[in-house]
């Protein structure tokens, strides 16, 4: 057996401790699959005294994580610090510049700096691996980069944030409102004390931009993604969706359309959607994640599993280490960075589809006629309209589903209603997932 792959671990939170536990527990099978031992040599974290449930005395402790990049007894640095910039990015750049392999679970850093890091890794002939950055233990990065490599992928989409999925499916099952379920998710550890990155869709958008690059051979363009979250979804929306044969899910969707079409370019959006009950995403519950990719020869691929947490994320990190131990690594985004296409953002307004709209309106005559007139003047055809109960402020809930049409028409209708004295609050728009 070859000499051991020597690893430095930066970040000893839940996932870092999980990596140590996995290597300890599955040492024999990991070594057999890697063809050699994988040994953690040094670790770094902010708090040396914290009990992490693992024996750290056998490893060298380094206070400054950046120093791990310069150690001669290290082959690979694993970064589990987090954050798009700061210590994580410094460590990544120094590790790769020093000719050492780099493994990370940091989707924010990849979304913002992944192309530069990948290009540097190619120049140094080292691995830049990040299976754990998207969908935890689900092998979707490997699936797209390797398993579906021979296919032209037309669309990739899915449920990319377990916190949001837990909140929405709990609201669905128990009929409770968002704020109450979010508080419960925080108490159970599914949501952070500051949940903004999750519930506002930013975390899912980081992951989507990475998946889009892999799927379409394009440069990462996180800034071009349209992002909205779930904080304005109410129990009545979920009940109405169920009555119509849908479930509400936060969906990240990316499509690449050819030049010459009305929707040419790369489309990326994270937003709550109505998902038909017959679609597999409608049945992804709790904190699970799921990704769908559609290839021109392989057809629809569906990946589902635990998208976060100690075990699944540690599993993905160690899988990357096994690949490196075997010498199995290539371009981080399936092709050299210089071959990745520069794709312009696709115009969302030209996309065609159906939409769900919910209004809270004043309880007085003429309100429905005003909404219907705005829809008519914008060219939106209404498929169904339902008035449902009252709101705490004395208003009335009105929900409608549109016929298929260009998205710009719905946006135009909402713009026509802006400032109307008949509306109490901002309308809720959710697109219907018809794929």
Automatic annotation (TrEMBL):
InterPro entries for this protein: ACT-like_dom_sf (IPR045865), ACT_dom (IPR002912), Asp/hSer_DH_NAD-bd (IPR005106), HDH (IPR016204), HDH_cat (IPR001342), HDH_CS (IPR019811), NAD(P)-bd_dom_sf (IPR036291)
Domain of life, source organism: Bacteria
Class of this enzyme: oxidoreductase
Pfam families: ACT, Homoserine_dh, NAD_binding_3
Pathway info: Amino-acid biosynthesis; L-threonine biosynthesis; L-threonine from L-aspartate: step 3/5; Amino-acid biosynthesis; L-methionine biosynthesis via de novo pathway; L-homoserine from L-aspartate: step 3/3
Residue ranges constituting the ACT domain according to the UniProt record: 356-435
EC number(s) from the headed UniProt entry: 1.1.1.3
Swiss-Prot/TrEMBL keywords: Amino-acid biosynthesis, Methionine biosynthesis, NADP, Oxidoreductase, Threonine biosynthesis
An MF annotation (GO) of this entry: homoserine dehydrogenase activity
Keyword Lipid metabolism appears in the UniProt entry: no
Family the entry assigns: Belongs to the homoserine dehydrogenase family.
Annotated protein name in UniProt: Homoserine dehydrogenase
Native organism: Sphingomonas oryzagri
């Amino acid at each position: 057996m070859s000499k051991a792959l020597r690893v430095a671990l930066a970040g000893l939170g839940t996932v870092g401790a999980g990596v140590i536990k996995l290597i300890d527990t599955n040492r024999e099978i990991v070594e057999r699959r890697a063809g050699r031992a994988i040994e953690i040599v040094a670790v770094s974290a902010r708090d040396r005294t914290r009990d992490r449930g693992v024996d750290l005395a056998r490893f060298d402790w380094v206070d400054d994580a950046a120093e791990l990049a310069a150690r001669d007894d290290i082959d690979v640095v694993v970064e589990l610090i987090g954050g798009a910039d700061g210590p994580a990015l410094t460590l990544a750049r120094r590790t790769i510049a020093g000719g050492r392999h780099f493994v990370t679970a940091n989707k924010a850093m990849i979304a913002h700096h992944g192309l530069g890091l990948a290009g540097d890794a190619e120049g140094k002939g080292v691995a830049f691996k990040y299976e754990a950055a998207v969908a935890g233990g689900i092998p979707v990065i490997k699936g797209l980069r390797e398993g579906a490599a021979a296919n032209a992928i037309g669309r990739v989409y899915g449920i990319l944030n377990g916190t949001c999925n837990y909140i929405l499916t709990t609201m669905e099952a128990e009929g409770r409102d968002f704020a109450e379920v979010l508080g419960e998710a925080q108490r159970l550890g599914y949501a952070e004390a500051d949940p903004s990155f999750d519930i506002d869709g930013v975390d899912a958008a980081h992951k989507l931009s990475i998946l889009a690059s892999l799927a379409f051979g394009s440069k990462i363009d996180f800034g071009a993604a349209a992002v909205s979250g779930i904080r304005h979804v109410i129990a009545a929306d979920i009940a109405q969706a169920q009555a119509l044969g849908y479930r509400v899910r936060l969906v990240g969707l990316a499509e690449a359309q050819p030049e010459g079409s009305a929707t040419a370019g790369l489309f990326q959006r994270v937003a709550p959607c109505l998902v038909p009950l017959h679609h597999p995403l409608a049945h992804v519950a709790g904190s699970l994640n799921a990704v769908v990719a559609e290839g021109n020869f392989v057809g629809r691929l569906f990946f589902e599993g635990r998208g976060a947490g100690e075990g699944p994320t540690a599993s993905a990190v160690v899988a990357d280490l096994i690949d490196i131990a075997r010498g199995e690594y290539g371009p981080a985004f399936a092709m050299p960075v210089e071959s990745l296409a520069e794709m312009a953002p696709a115009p969302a307004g030209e996309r065609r589809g159906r939409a769900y709209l919910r209004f809270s309106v004043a309880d007085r005559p003429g309100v429905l006629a005003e909404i219907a007139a705005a829809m008519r003047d914008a060219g939106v055809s209404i498929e169904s309209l339902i008035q449902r109960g009252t709101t705490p402020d004395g208003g009335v809930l009105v929900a409608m589903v549109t016929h298929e049409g260009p998205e710009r028409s719905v946006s135009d209708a909402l713009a026509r209603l802006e400032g109307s004295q008949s509306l109490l609050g901002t309308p809720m728009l959710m697109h219907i997932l018809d794929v």
